[in-house]
């Protein structure tokens, strides 16, 4: 996860929730988001990559 850009990390978080993936996986993403101090960006509209 360290290699993902902030945008891709946030997109992955939203997609993991949308797909109802493992809560452990979502928690790992959340922890990385908080480590990067970008939690305030969680609810912002993101452009899709690709």
From TrEMBL:
Cross-referenced Gene3D superfamilies: Sporulation inhibitor A
InterPro entries the record matches: Sda, Sda_sf
Pfam families membership: Sda (PF08970)
Entry keywords, A to Z: Protein kinase inhibitor
Superkingdom of source: Bacteria
Gene Ontology molecular-function annotations: protein kinase inhibitor activity
Protein name: Sporulation histidine kinase inhibitor Sda
